[in-house]
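note to self: dont lose this again. the chain is below, predicted strucutre after it. 260 aa total, dont forget to put it in the shared folder this time
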Amino acid sequence: MKRTSDLPLHPPPVVGFEDYYAGGFVDGFHTHDRAQLSVFLAGSVTVNTHDESFVLRPGQALWLPANTVHQATCRTDLLFQVIYVDPGFTGAADLPCKMFEASSLIRGLIDAIIAMSFEFAMDERMLTIGRLLLDEIGRVPRIADRLLFPSDPRLRRVCEAIIAHPGNSRDIDYWAREAGMARRTFTRLFQQEMGLGFAAWRRRVRVVEAASRIATGQSIAEVAFDLGYDNASSFSAMFHKTFGVAPRTLRASPTSAIRS
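---
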């Protein structure tokens, strides 16, 4: 395995390697002076920025623009590929933060970059590969299952607590008290900041969590119980209502995208 510390002092504009983190590892908030593309091959990870939380599973990828503050928490053992792109490279500065399913073409382009030595010459072939990779990232649909954070620090504290323990069944009155607000103020501000009600947002947290757990091997019944549902049927109905697909489809194809 190669790691960031192995990169030469002046790497090519597009460079990458494969890496592994053990389950439970937390890579605290940090930034890179390059854009970062991570493609996850095995395991599950939560990546938080200041504004969003992403739960990623095998076959999915995340593009982070240069200087994006982020944190990664490995929910399981994690095998992934990472590409670092100089922000001055053609098209890199135009791509926003984006979670997506890595197509076979994107995976092939990443493999070609990783196969090269860190100190390769950025010849016409590698320029073409790099440009095509960024063009494909811009074209692929964004996956919808990301979670937004509110800007209000009291609401953010509540949201972070729920994301950390999505099966927590405490009611809205409890969370309003935790935020130091009256229930009516809490619900109004939450709707105003998030564009949906508290209950709907928490359901979304649970199904995003569920998708990751199911794709990495947990049974649907076990996941439903852990996340506070009375039975697998009610959980499956909520999952389908939210994402338009049954949770069992993640068994058949773990990299199936849930798209906006």
